[in-house]
Amino acid sequence: MNTKINILSANKTFGKGDGGEVALLNINLDIENNEFVTFVGASGCGKSTLLRCIGGLESLSSGSINLDGAPINKPGANRAMVFQHYSLYPWLTVINNIKFSRLLRAGREDLTSSDVEAASGRADALLALMGLTQVRNSYPNQLSGGMQQRVAIARALMPRPQILLMDEPFGALNAQTREVMHDLILHVSKLEKTTIVFVTHDVEEAIYLGQRVVVMAPRPGRIDSIYQVDLPAKRDQDMKLSPRFLQHKKEILTRIRETAGMHTDYELLERMTRQAEVG
Amino acid sequence: MLPIKAAIESWRGMWVIRGELSRRAYWLLALVGLLLPIAAWWWLSGSGLMDKVFMPSPLDVLMRALTWFKDDDLMHDVGISTYRVFAGFVLSAVLAIPLGVLIGTYQPMKAMFEPLTDFIRYMPAVAFIPLVMLWVGIDEGSKIAIIFIGTFFQMVLMIAEDIRRVPINQIEAAHTMGANRGEIVSLVIIPSAKPALLDTLRITMGWAWTYLVVAELVAANSGLGYSILRAQRFMQTDKIFAGIILIGLIGLAIDQLFRWLHRKSFPWLHA
Fold first, then answer.
1. Residue A59's closest CA among A47, A80, A74?
2. Coil vs helix vs strand at A226
3. Is B190 on the interface with A (CB under 8 A)?
4. Distance CA B239, CA B232 (A)
């Protein structure tokens, strides 16, 4: 069996009794080795909660998440996480941020000089891969938002995690920077053979990056539908204009709109406008 | 443009909300802010509106400070007071930092100690003087104890708050890189909170100085606070002024030292 992550009837409730909020309701999903899965959905659909449960930062109320058959109950170095912001260590230089996981290990065991050298080699390779060589010795607050997220990704990849969990990592970046980051992360996933679970609110991003797009619905948080993305494995930005891409986008946006339970009452709006004009 | 018109323009430019101010204008205004009260004081003392006994002139105060320095061993008073403040401050920092870190990190510690500390910090330090005299006696220990009581409880709460302000994402990122509890405290929480902690120490150091006079109420026979209290008995208002201003100047110097230390210790913040 080459399934990596098995999510089995996972439930998560915040709070207790009638006031409790069901964040995740009966989630079942298998994620394959080296797969790139994206999660989209209206806010409150539980996509971030599910990601945090896979990361071990939150525990399920019932059900289980297994990694190669072993249940996940706490965070581990095999599941790295990239957050939207404020996760870098501003007192460390770029290179030392990237080496942080190595610093942890070095504190525990006596590393030989060749280990340290190998680690430096890996850090330098990641630095080059992420286009950070120029800012090696800069501090994070000297970098733009896009560069900071490159550092965060490099730091997450440092201990060679099996799984990379990304929680709206590019949500705060401008559109141009985001496109560059998309191609970069696709390149990384191929090169590092990392399984990537990616949460976003941007449907275009979800389709462009994902081999599968999981659409979640809110109240209670649940899986609404799953789309196998029918695009060539090697993506390029022009595909965003292809009929297939647009078809996926239309279908997914419709699903999200229908499940969000939010719509604008144009009739009411028009009536109010007319009243305001008369008054 | 006419020079007056230009001056009006630049004056208006200074009053933009959260606007910019040139370095020269900043120091000029700072100097005005410092000199204005002195000028007002000088004028008031010379105007005859107030008795010289109650309102000595700046020059009188300066002369008194000089004779204090030459004949009355001012430096001994400065030294002993500085020692008391530092001893009380260091003692409270040594205990407050670990306790504050624990309260800010672990909920049970917060539950156990925060309400208690909140309760004690409202008790006036002065009111502890009789107890301190009975328990600690009347030597140096009692003065240090008063300064300790005045600063410690505030310091603990402020440090706990600094620790709580460490972004949760920094902590969770470390979790997902496999860090254990101890590593997260020592390699993430403390380094992340350090600049805020140093600022807290700077602020509480100021409070420690404000408790000096209170502390030297306790059977002291030297020190700046004690000299101020004794000068009152002999109607030496000029010495009271000199003592108060000296404490202010020492405080200002220490504050600048802390700020300098901040710049030196955290280059990443000032880069």
1. A74
2. strand
3. no
4. 9
Nearest chain B residue to A138, by CA: B268
Contacts of A88 in chain B (CB under 8 A): 170, 173
Distance from CA of B244 to the nearest CA of A (A): 39
pTM summary value: 0.86
Nearest CA in chain B to A86: B169
Quick check: A91 and B194 CB within 8 A? yes
Instruction: Using CB atoms, pick whichever of B173, B183, B187 lies closest to residue A81.
Output: B173
Q: Which residue of B has its CA nearest to A84?
A: B169
Query: A75 and B175 in contact by Cβ < 8 A?
Result: yes
Task: State the Cα–Cα distance between residues B23 and B6, nearest whole angstrom.
Answer: 18
Asked if A139 lies within 8 A of B268 by C-beta distance, the reply is yes
- pLDDT per residue, tens digit, chain B (271 aa), is 578 888 888 888 888 888 888 899 899 999 999 999 999 999 998 888 888 888 999 999 999 999 999 998 999 999 999 999 999 999 999 999 999 999 999 999 999 999 999 999 898 888 888 888 889 888 889 999 999 999 999 999 999 999 999 999 999 999 999 899 999 999 999 999 999 999 999 999 999 999 988 888 777 889 999 999 999 999 999 999 999 999 999 999 999 999 999 999 999 988 7
Task: Flag whether the ipTM exceeds 0.85.
Answer: yes
